[in-house]
Structures are given as structure tokens and as C-alpha cells.
Amino acid sequence: MTQWKSKYIGSTEEIVSRLNPSSNLNGISSNQTLALNKAEGNSLSLSEQNVMAKETEVLTSWMNADVNRSDNSLISTRLQAKGSTVKGFDCDAPKVLVVDDHAAGRMTAVALLAMEGYEVIEADNGYTAIELVTQKQPDLILLDVMMPGIDGFQVCQLLKQDEHTRLIPVIFITALNDKRSRIQGIEVGGDDFLSKPFDRLELAARVKSLVRQKRLNEDLDHAEKVLFSIAKAIESRDPNTGNHCERLITLGEAFAEFLNLSRNQIRDLVWGGYLHDIGKVGIPDAVLLKCGKLTPEEWNIMKKHVLIGEKICQPLRSMRGVIPIIRHHHERWDGSGYPDGLKQDEIPYLAQVFQMIDIYDALTSERPYKRAFTKEEALSVMAQETAKGWRNPKLMLKFTEFIFSSKQ
Fold first, then answer.
1. pLDDT per residue as tens digits for the range 248-284
2. Do 157 and 164 meet the contact criterion of CB atoms below 8 Å apart?
């Protein structure tokens, strides 16, 4: 291969760091971080006297329940004991969908859950259950296994494959105690099992625990979506970068598979593609959007984006594997990088991997101040920086092999 020398004076850090300009977005600044509200619940305690009192209450409510039946006799019943609230939850009572083709089985579960303060919805077959999940968005589903038409396993599998319903916990209620049925339930995504006849205290405890976990998962899911939205907003501020994040994700997944990284490492690398520069939301426009060369003072401000990004993502436990990428993707092999001046294997491995794809994409993409380099030219620049001591030599060899062996 003919060796090509770049005429660009400077480093790839300057190219990479000045991607994705952004303005401060609606009050989000460097000292503001996202946090999750953690749900706390009280332990379940039911005395015999309380149970008796609640049974009387729920039976009275049962007599006045609002039952809506369609022409084809499919059941959609809503029941909640008057004045009841679930301990450990706010005034918005959790909704539980009970699915059983036997009315007696449904009534038992409905009565017990209504006593605990849940809003209960009923369905007598799998098809109705799927419709009600879409309409009502329950917090939990008690699902019988043996039903005509579509059985409980099939219902659960369909719900867990849907992005909008996958977080809803499913408890299988069945008379089946054999190991094979339980394994099948786990394989389709079931969260727990209760055998008929079930114990009322066990039912209440398991439902409460799974509903709490579901709400925590929803909070986490919402927080992650907020972060990704901010990251996309940052990228959209600069039309010159094109789909930089999308390209990083595609290239990162391919390189990760080439390196035989684990599933979790691939996920962290993909999320790093979206979130690595999220800290630029806290960099002033005068610095971030400046067309000319940055002064030393401005460059010090620009370098703070990795610390700001780390603070934004730190409250989320799911970001633990991504934070090292955000903080350390500008470190150098010889310790001359930022923010911590880490050397060689002190630099987290995923941050090293991400550096390769981030720099390569910056070099091979057109910018107002540079043309798009060919893959040979980009690899030559990266090889020169590796010779200076900036990159991991072994990883650079693997990346070069990957580029020439793929269609990238």
C-alpha cells in the first residue's frame, strides 16, 4: 500500500471534539444532572382482623361492580374496593389484568386483589387479554396457562415481543406443577408463577413486588429516552455532521463483533455512540459554535464536555458501562490525553475501541474545513498518531485489519 501523508496540521481530537455543536437546551447546563425517583414501598402486613374487614368491604363492592360485556360475551370487568389503596403506592392505583377462562378462578383473584386496593380488569380468553393490554396498559397480568384458542404461553410471548408491552410483568397462574411447563413459561418471558389454589398473602406480596419493579423499570426507560433525545438534539444542531451517531453505531457494532466482544459490551459501545458527546449541552455557544481556532482558554472549556457528560449519565445504573466511554474517549496511549491523563491499559478498553471508530468516522466524513478522506488516507493519519504514542498499537492493527476485511 502506498503510504500517504496528511497535510492536516493538528490532531484528530480537534476534528472529533468540534463535531455536534449545540446550544444550551432549555435550562440544561453543566451543573444539572438527571436523576431517577426511587419508588419505596412498605412491607406487606395483613392481620386476620384486617383480612376479615376487607373481605366484607370487597363483597359489598362486588355487588356494585361495573361489568361491561360485549355482544360476543368477551369479558372486560373493572373492579376496585371502595376507599382501598395499595400500600407503598400513590393514589394512582395499580391496574392488574386477570386472564382466566374459568369464572370461579377469576373471581377469586379479583376479590383478593380488590381487597388490596388494585384496579382489576378481567378477560376470559387470550385474544381479549391482548386487546385489553393495548387499551388499558395494566401494571401486571395474572395469566392462566390452559385456555382455549390461544393459551397463556402464546399470549405472554406476543406481549414480551412488543416494544410497548414488554415491561409489563406476567405471573402465570396454573394448576400445572410440572417442570416442563415452568421452563416453557420462563422461555416465553414469564416473570413468576403461582399454583392454584394460591395463597392470598403470597399473591399480594408477589404482585406488589413486581408492580414496584415495573414502575422502576419505566422510570429508567423514560430517563434513558430523555438522554438519547438530548443527544440527538445536540447532533441535529450541526447539519455538517450528518448522521454521525448512526454511523458510529453501525461501525461500532461491526467492529465489536470483529473483536468478539460480549453482548453487554456491544450494547455499551452502541449507547456510547449516542451519548459520548452529550456533555456538549453544557458548553457555551461562543466556544462550541466558533468557526476559527479555539484559544487555549476556550480549548480548556471544550474539554470539560466529557466531565459534564459523565455527570449527566451518572445517576443511571444502566449507564455504568457507558460512562467510561463518555469520560475517557479523548485519552491517549502515552498519557497526553484528557481529562485524567491515563496511560496505556489504564484507559478503559471500550473507550479505546470507541476512539478508533470515532476518529475514523470524523476523518472519512466531509466537513466545512476538510474533505472526506479515503479509508487509506484515514488509516494513514491514525497510523501516524499511533506512531506518536497516541493510540494502542495492537488495537490499531486490529482496526486496520477490520476495515480492509469489511465493506466499511
1. 888 999 999 999 999 889 989 989 988 888 888 888 8
2. no
In Å, the largest CA–CA distance within the chain is: 88
Residue spans in the chain of domains classed CATH 1.10.3210.10: 12-23+237-405
> What pLDDT digit, counting tens, does each position of 191-237 carry?
888 887 777 888 888 898 888 888 777 666 666 777 777 776 666 55
Overall pTM surpassing 0.90 (yes/no): no
pLDDT at 99 over 60: yes
| End-to-end CA gap in the chain | 18
Q: Give me 228's grid cell.
A: 438519547
Span(s) in the chain for CATH 3.40.50.2300: 48-218
pLDDT digits (tens, 9 = 90+) for 311-321: 988 888 788 89
Fold for the domain defined by 48-218: Rossmann fold (3.40.50)
For residues 35-50, give the mean pLDDT.
37
Assigned superfamily of 12-23+237-405: Hypothetical protein af1432 (1.10.3210.10)
The residues, any chain, with a CB within 8 Å of residue 287's CB and separated by 6 or more, are 294, 298, 301, 302
- Nearest CA among 285, 250, 229, 267 for reference residue 358: 250
